[in-house]
Design goal:
The chain has 259 residues and is α/β, with parallel strands linked by helices. It has helices spanning 36-45, 55-62, 67-70, 87-95, 110-122, 124-129, 142-151, and strands at residues 5-8, 25-28, 48-52, 77-80, 99-102, 132-135, 161-164, 168-173, 176-182, 187-194, 203-206, 225-229, 238-244, 248-254. The strands form 2 sheets. Strands 5-4-3-2-6-7-8-14-10-12 form a 10-stranded mixed sheet. Strands 1-9-13-11 form a 4-stranded mixed sheet, with no helix packed on it.
Length: 259
């Protein structure tokens, strides 16, 4: 297979990952943030840090027992319609240098509006090139989770957007050939390929315990490749190749004791 895009979650474990694209940004949405080790690393890696409306409350409350540490995590921007952020939280960050950006259009979610805002900051070329890490997108209300996951369909085809939680990382593989670098010490072995938003997807893989050969399409009416696993969890790096004729989501488990 001729690989078109390469992916890696090494950014979670390594400050100097060779797989990082451009200058990453960090978005914080309105749900539970991952553990401190993850927040620390992504905060340090991100060139731009953006809290999206109620996500600002989440960041503020994350340090409720350590106000001194809170001072080290001041976002560059706070954006959205700002109907969820607490006034005292907004005032706290504005006094410390955060900029406020009101985004009123109710035809879009705050996540979608924050992406458009980030695009306006970076310009089309760099927006597509730079990696994006998103916290607070998974595991909350089911309708919010589905909305957040579906938003990945609305970014440029070659942009790397990673949805990060304590339990897993999710990203969208668009139509084509992909190589995913996996690190069994920190993630997996459980992983999955999920045909969300398409009728069916014909997928071929290598590097998985249960590889797909394209002879049986993935769909909600037939099967999804959940609870799959890396082929060689004993190796430091596993390379998973995915060739798909439709967009498909990759999900990988994060190990709780890996940090």
């Amino acid at each position: 297979m001729n690989v078109e895009l390469e992916w890696s979650t090494e950014f979670i474990y390594n400050d100097n990952s060779i797989y990082t694209n451009g200058s990453p940004s960090l978005l914080i949405l309105n749900y539970l943030l991952p553990r401190k080790e993850i927040l620390n690393r992504l905060w340090k890696k991100a060139k731009s840090k953006i809290c999206v409306d109620g996500g600002t409350n989440r960041l503020y409350n994350f340090f409720k027992n350590d106000p001194t540490e809170r001072e080290k995590f001041i976002p560059d921007y706070i954006c959205g319609d700002l109907d969820s952020i607490k006034p005292e939280v907004l005032e706290y960050y504005l006094k410390r240098g955060s900029q406020k950006k009101l985004l009123y259009d109710q035809n879009y979610t705050d996540f979608q509006k924050s992406l458009m805002f980030l695009n306006s900051l970076e310009g089309d070329e760099f927006f597509e090139k730079n990696d994006l890490y998103v916290l607070g997108a998974l595991n909350g209300r089911f309708d919010h989770t589905i909305s957040n996951v579906s938003t990945l369909y609305k970014v440029p085809l070659n942009k790397h957007v990673y949805l990060v939680s304590n339990e897993s990382i999710v990203f969208l593989l668009n139509r084509g050939n992909h190589k995913i670098y996996c690190f069994p010490k920190y993630e997996g072995p459980t992983c999955g390929l999920l045909p969300v938003g398409v009728t069916e997807a014909n997928v071929m893989t290598s590097g998985l315990k249960w590889n797909l050969d394209g002879s049986f399409p993935l769909s909600f009416k037939t099967i999804v490749s959940s609870s799959n696993a890396f082929e060689h969890p004993e190796q430091e790096i596993n390379e998973v190749i995915v060739d798909t004729d439709q967009p498909i989501y990759w999900s990988v488990e994060l190990k709780e004791d890996a940090f």
